[in-house]
Specification:
Blueprint (H helix, E strand, L loop, with lengths): L16 E2 L2 E2 H8 L3 E5 H14 L5 E6 L6 H8 L4 E4 L2 H9 L7 E3 L6 H9 L4 E4 L2 H13 L4 E8 L21 E2 L4 H11 L3 E7 L9 H20 L6 E3 L17 H11 L5 E4 L3 H4 L3 E12 L4 E5 L8 H5 L5 E3 L8 E6 L8 E8 L7 E5 L19 E6 L2 E6 L4 H6 L7
Parallel strand pairs: 3-19, 4-5, 4-12, 5-6, 6-7, 7-8, 8-9, 8-10, 10-11, 11-12, 14-16
Antiparallel strand pairs: 1-2, 3-13, 13-14, 13-18, 15-18, 16-17, 19-20
Helix pairs in contact: 2-9, 5-6, 8-9
Length: 423
Amino acid sequence: MSSPNTDDIDAVSNQKKLGKHLYTDLADLYKTPLYVYDGDQIQRNFKAFQKAVSKLNSKVYFAVKANSSVAILSLLKSVGAGADIVSGGELQRALVANIKANDIIFSGVGKTDEELLLAMKHSIGQINVESGAELERISELAFANNLKCSVALRINVDVDPGSHEKISTGQKSTKFGIGLNEGQAEDYYQKIISHPNLNPAGLAVHIGSQLTRLEPFEIAYKVLLNFSNYLRGKGFDVPCLDLGGGFGIDYKTNTNPDFSEYGKMVSSLFQNQGYKLGFEPGRSIVANSGSLITKVIYVKNGINKRFIIVDAGMNDLIRPTLYEAYHRIDNLQERGDHRELSDIVGPICETGDYLAKDRMMPPVEAGDYLAVRGVGAYGAVMMSNYNTRPEASEVICYEGEIHLIRPRRTVEQLIKMDVNPFE
């Protein structure tokens, strides 16, 4: 899997503009915290992935959980993306973005009756089943409502992806997928084939997120291919293999992802095997397109380090405290190169409210704007209103123009969502 040729984060320029637009001007106009996306880069990343797998009979489905903005989904749909969803809400977002129902795959271990019926009534392309109990419920709902649906089995190949434990899904110790031991998966597939309301779509696998090596992918795909060929040998119809997502990015340099080596590996395994393939990239398509602009409120000199206190908190970007994630952070003002050990922290009343810890940062003053890079995935989509803080606004730059795609709500609007029966 290709990566940049340097570990020096200073080798990557501190980008102060998005096209002709200064980030600082956008922050002045829309206020902070502010998510800013490069829509053209999102499309370029998606096209690069498509090109890497273009020798195969395949469809690329964007993992909506990475960024569920309807505007971004619409941009991706315009270059051929389907949608990989994990909730009924994401299904409705994909449909609003004009993604065809047949180009939607529904994954996840806890689909409710309402979500399953919504998917069936829209005749989405595929529902990935993750347990015997789920398969039984789908069978009952389809039969009772005289509905047809296409069903694939998500198998658990028991592969350690080597990423953070909270985003690793390929081991048998996790809640995801159906194990291959004791013939369980084969029995379930037989039930799909024999049910009058279910169409066998094939098999699926997804072993985790932010994978930076090819080996875990290759191991998982070989297990999947061997099992699929075994089922075909038994006379079962296995038309498609859903290979999931998980391709990682380099958060230190925030450079564009290189999918070429991944494409070569996949082609070597699956070319001429007679399967239609599905791919579900998310992070690698949108992560490097996004910056979170935040304003410095105070600079506090502690005993051993500096605390740079900003107006973006863990409610705006939870990845650093939830996953111990690294995001490159630039000062958008030029104040020299002398660096000091610093924590960049938010205003929330939690010690875990930080964007970076023990980071060597250049001079910073109150009123400066900082840019947190690589936040296009699992950034705004995971925001909350903790401490009654309105979520950050979101804007996108596409073909040189800036568009507001999510306005910041006011505190008054947040409070109006409450119902007080004791007035």
